[in-house]
Amino acid sequence: MQDPLIYLTIAMSGLSAIAIVAMTALRGWNGWLDLKRAELLRPEPQRNDGESATASVGSRIEVADLKERIRKLEAIAAGVDL
After folding, report:
1. What are phi and psi of 81, to 5 degrees?
2. Which positions of the chain have pLDDT values less than 50?
3. Which whole-number Å values give the CA distances from 28 to 16, 25, 41, 50, in the listed order?
4. How far apart are CA 80 and CA 60, in angstroms?
């Protein structure tokens, strides 16, 4: 019969390994969350080469497209043929 101390040692080693892996994963997760928070709080860089105007026009077109889709969906819900 084997000594129960061997089983206890193996169990404690496994538990320690799981705890180390869990702590490492949590530290990585917190680091990733900190990175995303920093990205959200970072001010938008000022662009003087016309990129902001292009982005503004693109976003306006996107908003207009979304409004058109909403209008069509409301017409469908009301039973109106377009």
Report:
1. -85, 135
2. none
3. 18, 5, 20, 38
4. 27
